[in-house]
Amino acid sequence: MIAALQRKIFFPCLALPGFLTDNRGMKHSIYPPLLLFCLACCLTCMAGYSILSSGCFGAKKETLPDTNANVTQPDTGNSDTTPPTKPDDSPVIELPVQLKLSLVAVHPHDAQAFTQGLEFYKGKLYESTGHYSRSTLRLVEIATGKVLQQHSLARQYFGEGITLFGDKIYQLTWQEKTCFVYDRETFRQEKTFTYPGEGWGLTNDGTHLMMSDGSPRIRFLNPDTFQPVRVIDVRDGNKRVTQINELEYIHGEIWANMLGSKYIVRINPADGRVIGWINCTNFVPKEISPNDPENVLNGIAFDAETNRVYITGKHWPVLYELQLNE
Ligand SMILES: [Ca+2]
Q1: Cα-flanking dihedrals φ and ψ of residue 272, to 5°?
Q2: pLDDT tens digits for range 192-228
Q3: Do residues 128 and 162 lie in contact, with contact meaning Cβ atoms separated by under 8 Å?
Q4: Among 302, 219, 291, which Cα is nearest to 261's?
Q5: Count of domains in the chain?
Q6: Which range marks the domain in which residue 33 is found?
Q7: Cα(302) to centroid of ligand 1, in Å?
Q8: 138 Cα–ligand 1 center, Å
Q9: Domain identity same for 149 and 16
Q10: Residue 101: is its pLDDT beyond 70?
Q11: Given this model, what pLDDT does residue 273 score?
């Protein structure tokens, strides 16, 4: 029986050592078909593994954790989430953290002046005042508060920050998108620039103008074109500092008022990082209610020759002169 099967079946399993004889007496090697069979098995196994591991047929696909999912975003206080910009070639400035301000004198200040900009030049104070129909650019004698020279803006303009650059004075307007440029000596208007958004504070570092707009942003501007060259976002840690108002450039730092705050914030101009805060709570004059929402601290001027800082506020009757000792 077995011999009959061997003869009839083309490849009997027990015919070794490697050759089978068919029913016509011809010998055949068993190795080529065995190799083909093994190769077919390997290919089948590899294909099956590949299909299963790819997630088909309901197999669970391995997923990587979303590293952003559990990050709590900081409270920015502002819907604008534009990240701060820091060009690679921005200057790196080492800034002193500690400083001391001591009161030198209290000078009279025009209580009718809604102070929006303040800057010092050669013993005199330049001031910008706001409100429609009564905005001005003025030159003030510090010791007396007397207005020595004045230019009134047209009633549709609300004066804001000022800065002296070269022999020019730049003056922002609040929502009129206009910057006036005057001759420093005569206050004669020479030209205007337009810009997007609001104008709040203005200062300069001798190269660029720096402009705030009430947001955490400070724009660095080409004084010849008024076009932005870079922008910083003011941040204290992860929190953006908004309502940045009147500005002053002091020893490589930007000092800024914040609308409604009794603190001056010191800012690194390279990256917008907050260096420190100056508590001016004790400088609110007795004529002004500490909780007055409008007549607030606003106005910083700096005399680099004497290292003195002048501060005042909107409708404040006094101007404080402070000695800065680093
Ligand atoms: Ca200023």
Answers
A1: 85, 0
A2: 999 999 999 999 999 999 999 999 999 999 999 999 9
A3: yes
A4: 291
A5: 2
A6: 1-41
A7: 7
A8: 14
A9: no
A10: yes
A11: 96
